[in-house]
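tokens incoming
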């Protein structure tokens, strides 16, 4: 093989590694609780800690930073931006990916805001979280990335994978003896499961019966503000 071929392959490999590294660096690595305080509402990023008295927003219900208590009145644009940031943080989606979801939602029939939430709700990591197999969406993403999940009998390790009606999502048999899944099975029932899916805790299995609608999505987001932001 020619020297040029080796140079081309090496350049491509370096480009891929750089892109992956850049995406990893783009992930937020600070304190999740600061994000909740910034949005002035619980985003439930820390699992059970968010339900207890140790949640920082309970004692400090104001944005972090030196001027957190005395910030100026927020403009209409800032309110729209904050709502978009809140939604993206809840589902753990970066800006470019969130914009892509919005553009896809705008092409679908129906209300763009509702379509956006439906696309986010049907992500595989969110399905794992909603079913109670993970304490948080961050934990659900790790479960998916580590290859513990099968969809229709095939391993899927992409958190953004979108489930469809009649899909069968389950934890691999060899993974069901791991502590997180034993705990999830034992605690099943403590958290309500959306009506568009059915969970079989004894088999660590999720059956998707349909697509969610806005009435059953309990995410505290004013999606119309996001639509107004991106419509400018």
């Amino acid at each position: 093989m020619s020297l040029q071929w080796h140079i081309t392959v090496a350049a491509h490999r370096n480009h891929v590694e750089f892109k992956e590294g850049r995406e990893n660096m783009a992930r937020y690595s600070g304190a999740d609780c600061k994000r909740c305080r910034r949005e002035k509402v619980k985003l439930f990023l820390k699992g059970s800690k968010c339900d207890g008295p140790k949640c920082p927003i309970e004692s400090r219900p104001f944005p972090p930073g030196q001027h957190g208590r005395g910030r100026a009145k927020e403009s209409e644009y800032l309110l729209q931006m904050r709502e978009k940031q809140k939604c993206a943080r809840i589902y753990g989606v970066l800006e470019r990916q969130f914009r892509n979801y919005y553009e896809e939602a705008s092409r679908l029939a129906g209300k763009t805001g509702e379509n956006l939430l439906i696309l986010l709700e049907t992500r595989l990591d969110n399905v794992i979280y909603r079913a109670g197999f993970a304490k948080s969406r961050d934990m659900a993403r790790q479960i998916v990335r580590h290859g513990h999940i099968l969809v229709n009998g095939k391993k899927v390790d992409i958190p953004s994978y979108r489930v469809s009606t009649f899909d069968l999502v389950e934890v691999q048999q060899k993974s069901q003896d791991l502590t997180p899944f034993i705990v999830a099975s034992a605690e099943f029932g403590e958290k309500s499961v959306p009506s568009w899916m059915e969970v079989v805790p004894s088999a660590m299995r999720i059956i998707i019966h349909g697509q969610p609608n806005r009435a059953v999505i309990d995410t505290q987001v004013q999606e119309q503000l996001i639509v107004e932001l991106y419509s400018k």
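note: Confidence is low (pLDDT under 50) at residues 1-26.
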